[in-house]
Amino acid sequence: MKPTREHITGLMLAGGRGMRMGGVDKGLQTLHGEPLAAHVLKRLAPQCGALLISANRHPDTYAALGAPFGATIVADTLPGFPGPLAGLLAGLRTARTAYLLSAPCDTPGLPADLAARLARAMDTIDANQADIATVTTIDAQGEVSLHPVFALLRTTLADDLAAFLDAGERKVRAWYARHKTVEVTFTDERAFYNINSLQELSDLERA
To answer: Does the reported pTM lie above 0.70?
Structure first.
């Protein structure tokens, strides 16, 4: 059965160290007068029945940003900012729905139909009831890029992910490879543009 909105909990990943931005909290940097995280929440919330924010710093600030959407703050249970899989694990453990939709806090243009398209792909015969659906894009030159932190995942994967992390593994694609994963191609690569530096943020502000 194709998952619908009420079966999906959204997870905005805002738990990183922002090293390429000089260590600032990336989701709290402003674009057009609002934090990047606020832009993402506005696009993510309508696609989900419940909402979580993975934040390892400034939880009170993120709680205030998430309050209009009824969002709950979750934090990594592993020390040392081990990467997006730790945020995913916190989300999988906390969600009370069958599916979790993840997106990073630095992608203010994420598609309004992200959940619907990933859910449709998980339910296809070819996907054979996939465990994970994730995103690829194709640029004007025909080059394909994978965007693994945009994903729809079954929350039953939590124990397997915990074991993977306990073994010292950290790579998102390596964990996906353990499961039935389907890739969904989006033609608008700009929707998945993520901001990695203050210069990129400034450029987007002027665009």
So the answer is: yes
